[in-house]
Amino acid sequence: MENRDKVVVLLAGGRVVQRQAMPSVQPDLKEEELNALLSDQFREHTTFQKWSLQPVSNYTLRMCSEIISMAASYINNDGAKGVIVTCGIEGIAELAYFADLIWDLNPPLVFTGSLFNAGSRGSETSIRLEQSVQAVMSGFCTGKGALLCIQDAIYSPADVLQICSFRRNILAFPDAPLAVFAQPSGELLPLRSPRRRQVLSLGFPLARNIEILNASLGDGDLMLKALLDKRFEELDGLVISGLGDGDVPSGWVPLIRKLVRTEIPIVLASRPGGRVQDAEDFEGSASQLLEFGLLDAGMLSPYQARLRLAVGLSAGLKGEDLARYMKGEQ
User: Angle, to 10 degrees, between the axis of helix 302-314 and the axis of helix 319-326?
Assistant: First the structure.
């Protein structure tokens, strides 16, 4: 098999492997061009496979699961040593987090990307590809689930947030990396292990309609009313992204009560990405919403909570099992 004992780079798009689009120029790098970017010690161990090269904004949850299933097939069927996925950096943290929820294989799955187009000034294509291949071949990433290779380090997706769209440091890392690449030698230096992962196996269809409803200062209730009046039956689940501890405007309370009675799973998350807390008791407080039966997202960002809810529902979790899963207790 052509991929046996190779590191497969699955090209799912992203500027890291695409030129700035211009007339009469193909935007994606060819396999021979990508190979030429790797040093000899890594080139012979690497193979490139194209997916659809779509903008990450076009990805559906079904497409995300297809990427991960394809990566698993390279390992299970072809004997690949590990898989690297390239994609747009604007969605890389969410895609990698989703993958980490369901990646149950020992060989590593590593995501990488770049803010700059391949070949442009400031492009990180060569170093990101080489570091990702090095990470897979090092053995350090084995058994650690899905990982991010970005900004000269290896991170757990659960520890990554997007904070900007135009600076080189587009992502923020509240926790220390798992490993760093020491420059100029490029040696990979392990620092720590990721937190315990909760993995639900591949092989199930994903719940399709999980929406996020953001609360903001002075918000009205138009969106909630629209859900109740027209479209709530199309929802598989809902994440409410609350202010601060998870609080929402008081006018939302009667509408949320009605939504709870529909038995649609509703998760409460903190919009800033902190922790949902029942520290205070007032109309619209997190304490009140949790009493209504909303599921506590704990430390998850609203975006992580949405993906985790989709995976939990697709795996058939309900009631207390789903509540524990959302809080990371199973």
Answer: 140
> Same domain, yes or no, for 13 and 131?
yes
- CATH number reported for the structural domain that contains residue 31 in this entry: 3.40.50.1170
Burial of 199-208, coded b for 16+ CB within 10 Å and e otherwise, reads ebeeeeebbe
For residue 273, which of 328, 207, 329, 214 has the smallest C-alpha distance?
Answer: 214
- Identify whether 2 is part of a domain: no
Residue whose pair of structure tokens reads 């992203």 in the numeric block: 14
3-class state of residue 304 by DSSP: helix
Query: Does the reported pTM lie above 0.85?
Result: yes
Q: Give the Å distances, CA to CA, from 248 to 87, 256, 270, 285.
A: 34, 10, 10, 6
Question: What per-residue string of b and e applies to 245-265 under the rule 16 or more CB within 10 Å gives b?
Answer: bbbbbeebbebbeebeeeeeb
pLDDT tens-digit series, residues 136-172: 999 999 999 999 999 999 999 999 877 777 777 777 7
Residue 163 CB neighbours (<10 A): 11
